[in-house]
Amino acid sequence: MKKQFFSLFKACVCGVMVLAGAASCEKMNVEDADKESKANVVLRIGSVEQVPFEMARTRGRDVNGVCSRLNFLVYQDGERIRQINQTSEDEGFGEAQIQLPEGRFFLVVLAHSSNGNPTSTNANKIGFTNTTGFTDTFFYGDSLIVENEDVARTLELKRITAMVRFIPYDEIPSQAGRIRFYYTGGSGTLDAGNDGWGVVNSKQSQWYDLTHNEEKFEIYTIPHGNDDKLTVTAQTYKGQTEAIATERNIEAIPVLRNHITICRGYLFSPVYQMDYEITVDDRWSVDSLYFDF
């Protein structure tokens, strides 16, 4: 009887040791996994250069409500090695955690509301397309050095786009179903190594489905510098892709980064074509432009 009791006791002790060992191994694996996945670079969007179009000029506004997409891009020796894309529906929108080895990197962050993410393999040619669309875009670019200690950085993004706002005097033709703005002179591609300035002479376009209640139309571009001028062709279509109903060409529209150029005139009535006159508006930036036509 004693022998049976001792055997049972021994079996229980062995079982407890096995379970304890298993628990110990499981805990070690979890810690190792956490260590492997622990980020040593934490990035947070602190503010963006945002001036509401219809409000007084303000700065340092939170990223929420300003854009719908964020791209966190890390480059080393000209090669993109990390990419985190976020949408405004994602939890933690505006914060990114990245695991990087020790070294020197180049960090780029973009905030925009395009239909997709830009091509970003080359930091010197980060490009949006007519498919993804051109929107108000904000930029951060700077070196990033990772050493023994973790890095935490709060980022301030600045606007790199110019906007042209068309305010027509005349009514939209009743037969028009869509309008297309085709424009050249600016860029849809930025050079992150050159403070986000435009780097390609892009052929950009923006479509609008017409409800005939529109009071304005807006297009965006990334200027190459401070002397860019756009050439814009506005075409209305009878249907979605049917014959053109009207066509209006507008040349030498001045655009500046962080400025609105407001174009007022007869957009659908060529008979009323007239010379242009430039004045100043301060609702977006101190020196936004009026461009009457």
What topology does this entry show?
Blueprint: H1 2-37, E1 41-48, E2 69-76, E3 79-87, E4 95-98, E5 103-112, E6 126-127, E7 138-146, E8 151-159, E9 162-168, E10 178-184, E11 189-191, E12 197-198, E13 203-209, E14 217-221, E15 229-237, E16 244-254, E17 260-265, E18 277-281, E19 288-292
The total beta strand count reads 19
Helix content: 10-25%
Order of helices and strands: HEEEEEEEEEEEEEEEEEEE
Q: What integer value in Å does the Rg equal? A: 28 Å
For the biggest β-sheet, the strand order reads: 3-2-5-7-8-1-4
Largest sheet properties: 7 strands, mixed
Shape: elongated
Number of helices: 1
Strand residue content: 35-45%
Model description:
Strand 2 and strand 3 (79-87) form a beta hairpin. The chain has 293 residues and is mainly β. The strands form four sheets. The chain has a seven-stranded mixed sheet with strand order 3-2-5-7-8-1-4, with no helix packed on it. A five-stranded mixed sheet has the order 14-9-17-19-18, with no helix packed on it. A four-stranded antiparallel sheet has the order 13-10-15-16, with no helix packed on it. The chain is 12% helix and 43% strand. It has one helix at residues 2-37, and strands at 41-48, 69-76, 79-87, 95-98, 103-112, 126-127, 138-146, 151-159, 162-168, 178-184, 189-191, 197-198, 203-209, 217-221, 229-237, 244-254, 260-265, 277-281, 288-292.
